[in-house]
Design brief:
Oligomer: heterodimer
Number of helices of chain B: 17
Structural class of chain B: alpha/beta
Shape of chain A: flat
Helix content of chain B: 40-55%
């Protein structure tokens, strides 16, 4: 005779495993963000669409055999001949030979679909424009997330630990589970239904005026890779501003030896072949500020991406204009793109020129590779990471 | 549920009475009736009532649940562990006929666990307690401010990657001095000069296939880390026999449920769906090997050819590779239409050999190479250098390693070992080194 019993505990045995896995996936989403940045087709899109982010799966590696081993199959009653083609090899990304205990070999990708709002939550939740001050004539609306009760569904960053713990305790009491009398090893873990998330609603709120200058070097020395990195950086910045400060003014300036005020599309797509006069862009920015954005009414930010190359004779002029910008702006962020050097090599000329002025008004960062884009961005915006070089 | 626990008990009584008549000898069965959510949870925890926490179980839960929700696959109908008593799960959502089939099937599994010699060192009477204790210890490390979740997780990631790189039969590690003394003896009595150039100062003296055991014994690492290595090595050793006997185990259990259900005097409304389900379980999977099918088929053939006693003998002494080597005949290969296939220059998968007069032996060999854990590459510790560097080699048998995985796994070995590691294999006929 065998023993029979009904499963009693209400504990969800894999809850903590799943939570930990989810955290890893979310981390992978953040790391996978440069994949969307790299997708030019979404540059300049409105906030309604959803993004599909290929997130690298959290893989469990083992020693497994490659593709030169033989497998065996059965096919009773079928006609099988030597040399007969029976399939395609597993393609990259699909992975896996049939029937192989080792499991898939290719990269696992989860296609995670996230909305603009979630993207913002993941990326920008702890970031805001630094030093934003009240100016007269507040006419810019900002959409602000406002706490509005709790929900049982939500995303991890909004998990309310205390409320969740309380509902677990309530459930424990209701089920008459007594931790002191529990069998050894028996625990009362969290259940999906215990989890409580903070709920937010968008609320419009008038906010201070701000104008952001995007200044990009598009001269001949900016290689494809450099442009890609610069564009990635600006794209992140653009997304951030559009999501957080809906009606903020953005001015796009691209320059080689001459500066042009361009629209968003041209800014992200057009290239040039000329030399570099970095001062030209700053002259134009100062000019535009004078005409359209008086510092007493506007918070001014300027972000510049360049590879640091500049005509020798232009350096003095550049510095003069840069000082002017610093004196009237909240922040001048200079981002140097140099993918071809190691960390040990010297920064470019403009970086050196600006270095003595580093401080609250001027921040300098360098981007050498794709992975640097996000840290550089958070450094400039002043988020979670430190602003130390 | 259209039936009660009482109904299950009634049918169980009939099943065990019959099974005893068939000379089956199993651990007492301990059935737990669970819902599908708990069933998936139990499944990803390998049926263990208590398991340490690791994200990989969460991943496999999500994957299983997703597949279940989109209807890609049903849940495993049976889940039973090698413990004494044998803990088995019955999913509440299953209809009565399925529960009857599963209970008969479980008798077969438990009988196999108890009698097959591969399982002799698995200590089924204490496995549940051992894992419970392991879970507690790991939890303690997670809560220890000097260790914490990130380090514990990284160690578990590494250990799980190497989990089956240990001995397959739960052998006890022999002390270095003991092995050395044996070799000293051999060298002293060396008449034909076989050991003239033997280096007695090597460490280890013989290739050590128990990579996790070697690390546990020799690595200069913190106690908590060593303990996690120990836990995962034990777990790997516990599961090795099941990997080695997948085909036999399922074949034996299928034969058991088949015969018992036949003799149970089932009313038609229960018998017909059982026959239908049985046929679905043991059907061949075209293009691959269904262990239920192959195992059931071969046990039936052995019974036909050599009588039932031979079946009992095989279930006691064989593992999949020896089982197939000994009993799979040319006639069987032809009837099952076994064929071997491989990927050609990354362009297509084609058939290499078929089971005709000329090819069946080759196909059989290829099959044997892939069973009993043969798809898990074999690596061994070759040498530990004076400066602590560990030399690990892959025992190449014609099949190359997937190098991307190997690179990652070597990183894991380094993390566990704490010193330099060098790994050697052969890739496309050239020596290959990872360090």
């Amino acid at each position: 005779m065998s023993v029979f019993r009904e499963h009693k505990t209400v504990a969800d045995r894999t809850a903590s495993d799943r939570r930990r896995h989810k955290q890893k996936i979310e981390k992978a989403i953040k790391e996978g963000i440069h994949h969307i940045v790299a997708d030019e087709s979404i540059i300049g899109k409105d906030g309604k669409q959803k993004y599909r982010i290929p997130v690298r799966g959290i893989k469990e590696y083992r020693f497994v055999y490659g593709s030169n081993g033989k497998q065996v199959g059965s096919a009773p009653g079928r006609d099988v001949k030597r040399g007969q083609k029976i399939g395609e090899p597993p393609s990259q990304g699909q992975g896996g030979q049939p029937n192989n205990a080792g499991g898939d070999k290719g990269e696992e990708y989860y296609d995670v679909e996230i909305t603009h709002e979630e993207l913002a939550e993941y990326l920008f939740s702890e970031l805001k424009l630094p030093e934003l001050q009240r100016r007269q004539l507040s006419n810019i609306d900002t959409e602000k997330l406002k706490r509005k009760g709790y929900r049982h569904q939500g995303i991890m960053p909004r998990l309310d630990r205390k409320k969740s713990a309380i509902s677990r305790i309530k459930r424990m009491k209701a089920s008459r589970f007594d931790p002191d009398k529990a069998e050894e090893g028996e625990t009362f873990s969290f259940h999906e239904d215990d989890l409580v998330y903070r709920h937010y609603k968008m609320k419009k709120k008038p906010c201070t005026n701000a104008v952001i200058f995007f200044v990009m070097d598009v001269s001949g020395s900016m290689s494809q890779e450099k442009k890609f990195l610069a564009r990635s950086f600006f794209f992140l910045l653009y997304q951030f501003l559009r999501l957080k400060y809906e009606t903020i003014d953005i001015v796009f300036i691209s320059h080689d030896t001459q500066a042009h005020e361009v629209d968003e599309k041209d800014f992200f797509e057009k290239a040039s072949t000329g030399g570099t006069k970095a001062s030209s862009a700053l002259v134009m920015a100062n000019d535009i500020i004078e005409k359209r954005y008086h510092p007493s009414s506007w918070n001014i930010y300027l972000f510049q991406c360049s590879d640091g190359d500049n005509f020798q004779e232009d350096n003095e002029k550049f510095l003069e204009e840069a000082r002017k910008i610093m004196s009237i702006s909240q922040l001048y962020g200079y981002c140097e793109i140099e993918p071809d050097v190691s960390w040990l090599s010297d920064p470019g000329k403009l970086f050196q020129l600006l270095k003595p002025f580093q401080g609250n008004k001027l921040k300098e960062v360098r981007i050498n590779k794709r992975d640097d884009v996000w840290p550089a961005f958070t450094n400039l915006i002043g988020g979670t990471t430190s602003t130390e070089e | 549920m259209s039936y009660k626990l009482e109904n299950l008990k009634e049918w169980d009584e009939k099943i065990v009475t019959l099974a005893k008549k068939h000379s089956l000898d199993w651990y007492e069965l301990d059935y737990e009736v669970v819902d599908y959510h708990e069933m998936i949870g139990a499944m990803v925890h390998h049926g263990m009532p208590s398991m340490y926490s690791h994200w990989s179980f969460g991943k496999s839960f999500e994957q299983t649940m997703n597949r279940y929700n989109v209807g890609m696959e049903g849940l495993p109908y049976e889940l039973i562990i090698n413990s004494n008593p044998s803990l088995a799960y019955l999913m509440r959502e299953n209809p009565l006929y399925l529960q009857i089939l599963i209970m008969a099937h479980c008798v077969g599994h438990s009988d196999f666990f108890k009698n097959n010699r591969m399982f002799k060192s698995t200590r089924p009477e204490s496995v549940i307690q051992r894992l419970r204790a392991a879970k507690k210890r790991i939890q303690k490390y997670v809560e220890d401010p000097h260790v914490g979740i990130d380090l514990v997780e990284r160690t578990l990631d590494a250990c799980q990657a190497l989990q089956f790189q240990t001995t397959k039969y739960g052998q006890v590690r022999r002390p270095h001095e003991e092995i050395k003394a044996e070799y000293v003896e051999l060298i002293n009595n060396d008449k034909d000069g076989r050991y003239r150039n033997f280096n007695i100062n090597m460490y280890p003296i013989e290739p050590d296939y128990d990579l996790l055991g070697f690390i546990e014994e020799n690595a200069d690492i913190a106690d908590w880390k060593r303990d996690i290595v120990h836990i995962c090595r034990e777990e790997g050793q516990y599961f090795w026999p099941q990997i080695q006997t997948k085909i036999m185990n399922e074949g034996w259990a299928s034969m058991t449920h088949y015969e018992l259900c036949h003799e149970l005097d089932l009313p038609g409304e229960l018998h017909l769906p059982i026959v239908k389900m049985h046929n679905a379980v043991v059907r061949p999977h075209i293009g691959s090997i269904n262990p239920y099918h192959l195992g059931f088929y071969l046990f039936q053939k052995i019974k036909e050819r050599h009588g039932i006693d031979e079946c009992f003998l095989a279930r006691e002494v064989c593992y999949d590779a020896s089982f197939l080597r000994q009993y799979l005949t040319e006639e069987d290969c032809v009837e099952l239409n076994l064929f071997s296939y491989s990927e050609k220059k990354k362009s297509s998968v084609t058939v290499d050999d078929v089971s005709d007069e000329k090819g069946w032996k080759e196909v059989k060999e290829d099959l044997i190479k892939n069973v009993s854990g043969g798809s898990i590459p074999v690596v061994y510790v070759d040498e530990m250098k004076r400066d602590g560097m560990l030399i690990v080699r892959h025992e190449h048998d014609g099949r190359d390693l997937e190098i991307k995985h190997a690179n990652e796994v070597v990183e894991y070995i380094k993390y566990l070992w704490g010193e330099q590691v060098r790994f050697y294999t052969i890739l496309e006929d050239e020596p290959w080194e990872i360090d």
